[in-house]
Write a structure and sequence with these properties.
Helices cover 73% and strands 0% of the residues. It is mainly alpha-helical.
Length: 143
């Protein structure tokens, strides 16, 4: 027999452990990667405050920052999904819900306890009727 035929008859190896549903490696990897998203958001906010807000005004600068962060998050999550593939949609939803919960806890906790903002001030960032589209980025964390 030719070697290539012998190789074809061997059983395929089991899927890597990181892609099995419920795999601890997927959870650990995606949860450990969450601070990278926070770092991108903080860099984006700094860029907005120092560069775009003086040029465009607060509302336009916030809208531009939202779109820029959305692009950064899409690229970051694509990069992560190539390195830590999620095998099932249920697991993807669970990771997305965890990321969204951590994101909202961080945003509200940082705003309240570090920046000493009122709840009404923080929640105003989620009011799409007044041109605030920040909720899009918070929802993006879940997809």
């Amino acid at each position: 027999m030719r070697p290539s035929v012998v190789l074809l008859r061997r059983p395929l190896p089991a899927r890597a452990s990181y892609s099995r549903p419920g795999s601890a490696r997927v959870w650990k990897g995606w949860l450990a990667a969450w601070p990278g998203m926070v770092a991108a958001a903080l860099a984006n906010g700094t860029f907005r405050a120092l560069v775009t807000q003086p040029l465009l005004g607060e509302t336009a600068a916030r809208q531009l920052a939202t779109v820029l962060l959305l692009g950064l998050l899409v690229a970051y999550q694509w990069w992560l999904s190539r390195r830590l593939p999620i095998a099932t949609w249920q697991q993807a939803v669970a990771v997305g819900v965890a990321w969204t919960a951590m994101t909202l806890a961080f945003e509200l906790g940082f705003g309240r306890f570090v920046e000493h903002l009122s709840w009404s001030t923080m929640l105003a960032d989620y009011d799409v009727t007044s041109g605030r589209i920040w909720a899009i980025d918070s929802c993006r964390a879940s997809t």
